[in-house]
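QA checklist item 7 of 12: single-chain prediction sanity check.
[x] sequence parsed
[x] length recorded as 196
[x] structure emitted
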Amino acid sequence: MVRLCAVNSAWYANHSGESAEEHDLSMLAIRGAFCPCKDLKIMSLSGFANKWSTKLTRHIPPGQFGRYLLVGAWNTLFGYGSFAFFTAILSPMIPHSYIVASVISSLLNISVSFFGYKWFVFKTKGNYLREWIRCVGVYSGGILVGVLTLPVAVLVIRRNTRFVAEAPYIAGALLTVFMVVYSFVGHKKFSFRTPA
């Protein structure tokens, strides 16, 4: 069971077998983490998860996150296709063409994803340059987070599991899930934010 404090919305799991009163009196009064008050509401873990997910998603119009995932799938296919195309075209002319191809395709891909998000997902009007610059900012922040956290995640996976060779792939998959949510929130709250 999860205990929710009605006073400051702190929560903690009571797994010690003590009564609620005994457990409450033994807790430290750390604001926002534990609450020694007696006014607690008992809620199942699934009820707590449902309440939490409802709070997170109530600000998202129906279908918007699904449209975001569809545009993201298209962006992935288009992005890899354009990278492969530019690599093949530039290969006969430039050594290490994949590096130049990556830069060119990234700029093109950000623009293509920008229009998909603007017209199909968030459906904003006007402000093309400002929103495109913000979109580049969200993607740049995501790239920075990825560059900083991927090596740490790989190290943690290698040290704590038997998946040594697979660690970069597992860490990349976990990071991808995080980045999908990060990018959605970043685009919704920053890139395509509409004035209130």
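[x] summary fact logged: Residues 128-160 form the longest helix (33 residues).
[ ] second reviewer sign-off
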